[in-house]
Amino acid sequence: MPEIGMTRLVRIGVLNYGVGNLFSVVSGLRRLGAEVDLLESLSGVEPDGLVLPGVGNFTEGAKNIHAHREKVIDLVDAGTPTLGICLGMQLLFEESEEGEGKGLSLFRGKVVKLRTSAKLPHIGWNRLLLVRRSELLEDVSSGEWVYFVHTFAPDPHDESIVLSLTHYGDTDFPSVVGSNNLFGTQFHPEKSGETGKKILRNFVKLCVRR
């Protein structure tokens, strides 16, 4: 049974732009009561929420998402709750040290390689350090654990969009960003146990309230 009481059907679109990690996200959202569409195109689509998942290389992701660029921006500008996960979060920014290609530039800043002597890629469980409250992080506390698989992380121009940091090795990096209806997580909430479930639940609630 759905975990979230809804007064209307809530439809969330998960964009398939060819970079994997789709079905665990779709399953996680469906378990919370949302109707989830795996979308090959955003043409003619007006979802209550949009998720940009992704695992892989920034250059490939930027190339693949280019065809959807204008529609993603239009949906964000129209107030549609939007969540980028891992590579999907990085593509919300302008560019990346990982390679060529332009992101969506919905947030200003560059994606950079983690400045640490610790082993890369960073794979495993690390804690969230909350720095700003957000509806996406309702009922989430500093110190909770989430699951990462990455080598790069965003370096935003505007520090006010950083909602949480995570410490790895000898560096801190933004692990959740957000402003208005646009959010990103550098970790995988769909693989992050109860903490990730709370974050996905909060995203569904944002879509319900829209």
Structural account:
It is built from five helices and 13 strands. The protein has about 210 residues and is an alpha/beta fold. The chain has one domain (about 10-210): 3-Layer(aba) Sandwich (Rossmann fold). It has an eight-stranded mixed β-sheet, sandwiched between helices. A three-stranded mixed β-sheet has the order 5-6-10, with no helix packed on it. β1 (about 10-15), α1 and β2 form a beta-alpha-beta unit. The chain is globular. The two termini are about 25 Å apart.
Describe how the helices and strands are arranged.
Layout: E1 11-15, H1 23-31, E2 35-39, E3 49-52, H2 58-65, H3 69-77, E4 82-85, H4 87-90, E5 95-96, E6 109-113, E7 122-127, E8 129-130, E9 145-150, E10 152-156, E11 162-168, E12 171-179, E13 182-185, H5 193-209
Parallel strand pairs: 1-2, 1-3, 3-4, 4-13, 5-6
Antiparallel strand pairs: 6-10, 7-9, 8-11, 11-12, 12-13
CATH superfamily: Class I glutamine amidotransferase (GATase) domain
Tell me, what's the shape? globular
Mean pLDDT: 95
Please state the structural category.
Answer: alpha/beta
> How far apart lie the N and C ends?
23 Å
Strand order in space, largest sheet:
2-1-3-4-13-12-11-8
Radius of gyration: 16 Å
Number of helices: 5
Identify low-pLDDT runs: none
Tell me the name of the CATH class: Alpha Beta
Strand content: 25-35%
Number of domains: 1
Which second-level CATH architecture applies?
3-Layer(aba) Sandwich
Helix-strand pattern: EHEEHHEHEEEEEEEEEH
- Tell me about the biggest sheet? 8 strands, mixed
* Topology-level CATH name: Rossmann fold
